Amino acid sequence: MNLKEKTIILTGARRIGQVVAEELAKKGANLAITYRNSKEESEATCQACIAVGVKAEPFMADLSKEEDIKRVLTEIKQSFGSIDGLVHMAANYPKTPWSEVTGETLDQEYDIITKSAFEMGRLASQEMKNGRIIFISDWAANRAPYKDYAPYLVAKGAVETITRVLAVELAPDITVNAIAPGPILKPPDLSDEEDKEALSRTPLGRWGGAEEIAKAVLFFMESDFTTGVILPVDGGRSIA
Known about the structure:
Elements: E1 7-11, H1 16-26, E2 30-35, H2 39-52, E3 56-60, H3 66-80, E4 85-88, H4 103-125, E5 132-136, H5 150-170, E6 175-181, H6 192-200, H7 210-222, E7 230-233
Parallel strand pairs: 1-2, 1-4, 2-3, 4-5, 5-6, 6-7
């Protein structure tokens, strides 16, 4: 798909999302950026995209609620005239020790990560012709889960199933793929010891940077013959 003048919805424009938005804008795509709490960051990202010469607009929505998804999709369609692609990045990353896991903590992650991905994909696809949908998983979800993130990883693992299911259901007009990031950006609270341990288990031995996720997004957006793929972007972490 040629991205020039296409309308892409990007859910979440902080950190990695900001870089993804700017790279899509450089390809000529117009950006509808949704946010829940990060209004200032989303507005700043839109301004950076506008500076490239495309249209970009922020939209507030709680994507764990179906009524909010329907509302924001209507607003985007009214503002942009069409919807051609979705990059669903909105998520949280809560540390939850096993002793604190409850049905409620699982429900929270399911709503924020899993349900929002399924409903955004399902409802946005109804507005697309020859569209593109990209989800974000996690390299550890179905490979080597780490401790203290059980609800998050269970929810992210389901995103990979959603990717394959929608790839089948929406073919041949819409492709659906997912990216499974590994060590991309170093968490600000990561200790030196934890940093060394993470990189020691990563064959390429470094943090990838947000640009690597943006490259994967552009590949899936521009490819006309790739669907149902879960692409690890993890420096080899998943095979170490």
